[in-house]
Amino acid sequence: MIKSSAKEVVESCDIIFSMLSTPEASKAVFESDTGTLAGVSAGKSIIDCATLAESDMKRMNDQVTAKGG
């Protein structure tokens, strides 16, 4: 089934890999209203393969775990 947003992908999968080209692209997809974080719930795992700063990875991890992921 085709999904129209990152949120919908996350809602339908337990493990999600994200491989975007820049930190800016990763943040835009992760934090938008229809982005990755919006679809996170208990039991979801997000693996971001972008080259990001440690502080960005920590912030994203904290946001995911706060939602039970």
Strand order of the largest sheet: 1-2
The total of beta strands comes to: 2
Rg (C-alpha, Å): 11 Å
Helix content: 40-55%
Distance between the termini: 23 Å
Mean pLDDT: 94
Low-confidence stretches: none
- Name the beta content range: 5-15%
Given the C-alpha coordinates, what overall shape results? globular
Give the class from helix and strand content and strand pairing. Answer: alpha+beta
Q: What is the number of helices? A: 3
Largest sheet: 2 strands, parallel
Instruction: Return the string of H and E elements.
Output: HEHEH
The gist of it:
By secondary structure, the chain is an alpha+beta fold. The protein has helices at 6-12, 23-31, 54-66; strands at residues 15-18, 45-48.
Q: Could you describe the 3D structure shown?
A:
- It is a single chain.
- The protein is α+β, with helices and mostly antiparallel strands and 69 residues long.
- 42% of the residues lie in helices and 12% in strands.
- It contains three helices and two strands.
- The protein has helices at 6-12, 23-31, 54-66; strands at residues 15-18, 45-48.
- Strands 1-2 form a two-stranded parallel ribbon.
- α2 links the parallel β1 and β2 (45-48).
- It is globular and about 30 Å long.
- The model has no long low-confidence stretch (mean pLDDT 94).
